[in-house]
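idk why but the lab printer keeps eating my pages so im just putting this in chat instead. protein + coenzyme A:
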Amino acid sequence: MKKSPPKKFNKAFLVGEKVYLRALELDDLDLLCKCYNSPEVRRTFFLNTPTNRIQQEEYVRNLYKQKDHIPLIIVVKQTDKPIGITAFHRVDLVSRAAVYSIIIADSADWSKGYGSDVTRLMVEYGFEILNLNRIQLHVCVENEAGIRAYEKAGFVKEGLLRQGMYRNGEYYDFFVMGILHQDYYGR
Ligand SMILES: CC(C)(COP(=O)(O)OP(=O)(O)OC[C@H]1O[C@@H](n2cnc3c(N)ncnc32)[C@H](O)[C@@H]1OP(=O)(O)O)[C@@H](O)C(=O)NCCC(=O)NCCS
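predcted complex ->
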């Protein structure tokens, strides 16, 4: 049988084991809308308002003017299918700190190891390329997959935001998680 040529992931910015990460394009508007409108994602990400292609197009067109926000599209290596978005927010070049986020749009793509792969890649990018000193995030205490993916990449629980966010009649606690340059390099 004729072998297919190896995939080169031409648009890739960062390449992991299962996924690669690439810059956002206007072709991604439907994926972005799915990420932020999906009831399943809104449940775990605590999003409350809808978005549309117009809002997302404006966002993508202005994106790389903002130096403190670095989003990337998550693509499965094997299929070349874009499945979500990851980002550094509030990149602070004085404190050398940033906030990390990740959304995989479709729950059919959850629990396949993609989130762990993306988190490892972003941590490596943050410390080795961007020269950050600290990466942090907030995660609902009930988001077991997220917490586990973050811990596997080296994040530790640093604190608790009591009743941090509200959803459907209940307030939920959130962990503050962080990883330092010295943790990553084992010093
Ligand atoms: C949170 C999210 C990024 C995790 O990514 P993922 O690809 O689903 O996670 P992984 O498959 O890499 O799994 C991570 C770990 O959690 C475990 N896990 C996966 N699903 C789980 C579940 N439902 N319950 C408990 N543990 C789970 C996995 O077994 C794995 O641990 P292991 O390697 O020790 O076995 C993804 O589910 C997602 O995008 N959810 C919607 C948006 C969201 O919640 N974003 C994060 C907000 S802070």
